[in-house]
Amino acid sequence: MSEPFEAGEVCLLLDARSRTYLVDLRPGATFQYHAGGIPHDAIIGSPPGSVHRTTSQARLVALRPRLADYVLRMKRGPQVVYPKDLGAIVHWGDIAPGMTVLEAGTGSGALTLALLRAVGPEGKVVSVEKRPEHAAHAVAAITRFLGGLPGNLDLRDGLVEDLVGEVGPDRLVLDLPEPWHTVEAAAEGLADHGVLTTYLPTIPQVSRVRDAMRRTGRFAPPTTFEVLHREWAADGRSVRPSHQMVGHTGFITVAYKTLEEPGAPAGDEPPGPDAE
């Protein structure tokens, strides 16, 4: 059985209609919604999955939020990377336990949390954010979910292109509006056979970053894709797709860094059909 809830923890309450509520458990406080209230003290000390009744006898299940639950319900600030994209970035970016990952920018902290989980306690995430207000938001979001800042997270301010050579990361993940400014530094400072991943909202941005990769002559032809997410309702014989879906949120571009070819000029390959 999982450890019981403690004061200060984040709890996910699930009602009978599958609606969820994210609650910070505080002694003496009460969660109140349209179907009554429940004291936080009734949840603190109980195990995840326990069933509770509100003052109006409404049924609530207390759960530890999954990372996906937390990301979808976390306080909004900078643009949040959706869970459907987080999984694709981690897997297509080939981020594994024990690796050192350099991320920019920290933004909402959602991608940082996913990277920390992927690299594990033996790995390291260096996250760069040049906007102080975004950095402060990310610190609060990460601390709220993990209960503090982990020792393998190194938060920096400034420009990521100034840090690639210093960190020498195994993987580089760029959630920036103009990641092409970092590609040349990545060609030099990213570990050999490392992977560069970018996350961008528009195709013109994708074209520019792919062109920047080609000009260095140090990246294998990249892959660009998007992830669409649609849920299905399956209740007895009633099986149908949801009327709503999460469509376009961003384009993910992934490229391997190659070894330098002696004597070959940078960008000696002609642009492909998708280049500008």
Fold and architecture overview:
With 276 residues, this protein is an alpha/beta fold. The chain has helices at 40-43, 67-73, 83-92, 110-119, 132-146, 164-167, 180-189, 203-216; strands spanning 10-15, 20-24, 30-33, 36-39, 51-53, 59-63, 100-104, 124-128, 153-156, 171-174, 195-200, 223-225, 232-235, 238-241, 251-256. Helix 7 (180-189) runs parallel beside helix 8 (203-216). The N and C termini lie far apart (56 Å). The model has no long low-confidence stretch (mean pLDDT 93).
Binned, the helix content reads 25-40%
Low-confidence stretches at least 5 residues in length (pLDDT < 50)?
none
User: What value does the Rg take, in angstroms?
Assistant: 22 Å
| Number of distinct helices | 8
Number of strands: 15
CA-to-CA gap between the ends? 56 Å
Oligomer: single chain
Structural class based on helices, strands and sheet pairing: alpha/beta
In percent, how much strand structure appears in the residues?
Answer: 15-25%
Mean pLDDT: 93
What's this model, at a glance?
By secondary structure, the protein is of the alpha/beta class.
